[in-house]
Specification:
heterodimer; A: mainly alpha; 2 domains; B: 137 residues; mainly alpha; 6 helices; 66% helix
């Protein structure tokens, strides 16, 4: 058991991860549900009573109940991974990404901060005191919620489920994901973070 | 609880997403800067194995746990909603380094400030619902 936990705590090969994500999609289908996450945002709107004013949210939120349980499980899974399966080694980022982080005056991934997964210089509550932090956290969230409902799906629904089912709409959506991502990463994000962190 | 099955699948998903580092802001930046194969490998192999699974489901007409036919209903035919909506989501994905699944998983990882992004995402869905009749689909 100890050896198993040690083995699982090592960084996973991308093919192992990809295979297991496909297994999750299969298990959802086997359980009679489609693998998708972003429709949960609509469920929360429905729970909040937005259906009275906006027809998109006028449905019985219990339809999304099993998805909410899945999401609760994924939060618990994140907790299990960081608590008992944590790898003490820093993430093996490419050298050019490391240089990019330095140019943003961000530190390198540190297993003891932000789970070694996110830069704590940006992802902390104090960020909400700066307009750049609000743009990044609140603005970024609004773009995610708006975009995924406009496109009827996110990475799980389109890039995994949709592409697996060879659906053209999902291919169009994934092209959009990358257009947006490339615009943000290559033109907008660098000056935003620099103006946030470099006085 | 009849939904226990989804709790277990969700836990598996949360562990996979964390250990694969697909929830990492660093990895998403690296991906959009084309500086590593890691994320492309994950998504590419997930889609490839997914294609194989769906092919086998269709070929052998597999049923789900309740005995119903297992299939993915096709999305409606449209163009602009997928391209424009996808692009808007992509902007947010690169900014926060997280798509919707990882947002939840990161909260479990103890990055509680992601709750701000999550609440904002629900707000974004609400705004979409309010203005969708003015948008091209």
């Amino acid at each position: 058991m100890v050896q198993l936990i040690q083995a699982v705590s090592q960084p996973w090969h991308w093919a192992v991860s990809g295979f297991l994500i496909a297994v999750v999609m299969f298990l959802m289908l086997y359980s009679g549900r489609r693998f998708g996450i972003s429709s949960s945002f609509e469920t929360f709107c429905a729970i909040g009573g937005a259906g009275k004013h906006i027809s998109l949210f006028n449905f019985n939120w219990r339809i999304g109940q099993s998805q909410l349980v899945f999401i609760l499980g994924s939060i618990i899974g994140g907790f299990i991974a960081v608590t008992w399966l944590h790898n003490p080694e820093p993430m093996a980022l490419s050298e050019s990404t490391r240089l990019y982080l330095t140019s943003l005056s961000l530190g390198q991934p540190d297993p003891n901060q932000g789970g070694g997964l996110v830069p704590v210089e940006i992802f902390n509550w104090q960020s909400l005191a700066s307009w750049q932090g609000i743009v990044l956290l609140v603005g970024g969230g609004i773009l995610i919620g708006f975009g995924t409902r406009y496109a009827k799906g996110c990475t799980s629904g389109h890039a995994i489920s949709g592409l697996s089912n060879l659906q053209l709409p999902s291919l169009i959506a994934v092209v959009g994901f990358f257009m947006g991502g490339l615009i943000m990463t290559n033109f907008l994000l660098t000056p935003l973070i620099q103006s946030m962190l470099i006085p | 609880m009849k939904n226990w099955r989804f709790l277990l699948i969700g836990m598996l998903f949360g562990i996979i997403m964390t250990k694969s580092q697909a929830v990492s802001w660093y990895r998403i930046q690296e991906m959009f800067r084309f500086e590593s194969f890691h994320m492309y490998g994950i998504m590419g192999s997930a889609a490839l194995f997914g294609i194989i699974f769906i092919f086998l489901i269709k070929k052998y007409k597999l049923n789900d746990a309740a005995g119903e036919a297992m299939d993915i209903k096709p999305k409606e035919k449209a163009f602009w909603r997928y391209l424009l909506g996808g692009t808007i989501f992509g902007l947010g994905w690169a900014m926060t380094g997280a798509c919707p699944g990882p947002l939840y998983v990161l909260v479990g990882n103890g990055i509680l400030v992601m709750l701000v992004v999550l609440v904002s995402a629900v707000l974004g869905a609400l705004i979409y619902g309010a203005v969708r009749k003015y948008l091209p689909h």
